[in-house]
């Protein structure tokens, strides 16, 4: 994938057709193949002590490589084949201020983000990844930029009256969600096994599965499901009201953040300093709003709180 040249939020507010969404997914796959062939250009961090020296290396190179998973609105390829999404938009601003003027995308599957980061295929995960205790053992998270509730894609009129995971279990409805998504754990909380769930690559595939009757419901973050239904102007499906799922018996708001290798504390702290300034000034919301995020989805939580 060529380094993006579009402005932070250019094209973010466009209404995307079903065809352009599919074309974007195809572009991501094609560019992913290119990214895999250029992995030799990765910037490794030789100094694994004293907080790592990756930031200095990135400054010298002038480019940071972002690990992406191709999910709207976090990070994806638009209809023109260019990188967009809330995470790349935030990354462009912060890394520019850290002295790294260019961002280069490295597309991969969601489940490959953490392995790819730790094997130095790219420098940072920029995919709106939820902070979970298990992931906190594998990577170093920045403070979250948002907190998110869940919502469903269902058939028009919501014929099975599905508003939360307990409703899915009670109705015996066929659930779909994305591979590696946190929604799998939320479903398990009410006794829905992963083997009973239709696992799909993204929310567009989820919308199509619901429209075609292969699934009764697709579970995802509120912003992803409302965006895909609105952008495709679906006549057969709708999105439900957002709700807070439970995990380990307690309400759980998902919080998404950038992720770094555990040795790179200097880079993470420098990133956090800029992120906190953006939160305080309101700049972060201004960047994320064109991608469908709401003021109530901003958060003051820290990675330390989420990893505890």
Structure, described:
With 308 residues, this protein is an alpha/beta fold. The chain is built from twelve helices and 15 strands. The strands form four sheets. Strands 1, 4, 5, 6, 7 and 15 form a six-stranded mixed β-sheet that branches. Strands 10-9-11-8-12 form a five-stranded mixed β-sheet. The two termini are 37 Å apart. The N terminus is likely disordered.
**Which band does the percent of strand residues land in?**
15-25%
Largest sheet: 6 strands, mixed
Terminal Cα separation, in Å?
37 Å
Percent helix range: 25-40%
What letter string, H or E per element, gives the SSE order? HHEEEHEHEHEEEHEHEHEHEEEEHHH
Mean pLDDT: 86
Computed Rg: 19 Å
Contiguous runs where pLDDT drops below 50 for at least 5 residues: 1-46
List keywords for this structure.
single chain; 308 residues; alpha/beta; six-stranded mixed beta sheet; five-stranded mixed beta sheet; 15 strands; 19% strand; globular; disordered N terminus
């Amino acid at each position: 994938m060529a380094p993006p040249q579009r402005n932070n939020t250019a094209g973010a507010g466009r209404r995307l057709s079903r065809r352009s969404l599919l074309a974007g997914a195809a572009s991501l796959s094609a560019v992913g193949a290119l990214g895999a062939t250029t992995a030799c250009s990765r910037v490794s961090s030789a100094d694994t002590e004293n907080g790592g020296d990756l930031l200095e290396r990135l400054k010298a190179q002038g480019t940071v490589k972002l690990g992406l998973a191709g999910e709207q609105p976090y990070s994806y390829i638009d209809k023109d084949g260019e990188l967009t999404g809330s995470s790349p938009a935030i990354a462009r601003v912060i890394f520019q201020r850290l002295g790294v003027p260019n961002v280069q995308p490295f597309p991969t599957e969601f489940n490959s983000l953490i392995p790819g980061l730790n094997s130095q295929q790219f420098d940072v995960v920029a995919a709106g990844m939820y902070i979970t205790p298990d992931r906190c053992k594998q990577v170093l998270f920045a403070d979250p930029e948002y907190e998110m509730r869940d919502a469903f894609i269902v058939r028009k009129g919501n014929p099975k009256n599905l508003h939360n995971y307990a409703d899915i279990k009670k109705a015996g409805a066929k659930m779909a969600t994305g591979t590696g998504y946190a929604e799998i754990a939320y479903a398990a909380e009410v006794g829905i096994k992963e083997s009973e769930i239709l696992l799909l690559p993204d929310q567009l595939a989820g919308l199509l599965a619901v429209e075609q009757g292969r699934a009764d419901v697709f579970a995802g973050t509120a912003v992803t499901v409302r965006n895909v239904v609105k952008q495709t102007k679906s006549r057969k499906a709708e999105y439900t009201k957002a709700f807070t799922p439970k995990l380990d018996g307690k309400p759980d708001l998902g919080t998404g953040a950038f992720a770094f290798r555990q040795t790179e504390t200097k880079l993470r702290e420098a990133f956090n300093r800029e992120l906190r300034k953006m939160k305080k000034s309101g700049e972060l919301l201004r960047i994320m709003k064109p991608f469908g995020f709401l003021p109530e989805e901003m958060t003051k939580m820290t990675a330390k709180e989420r990893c505890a």
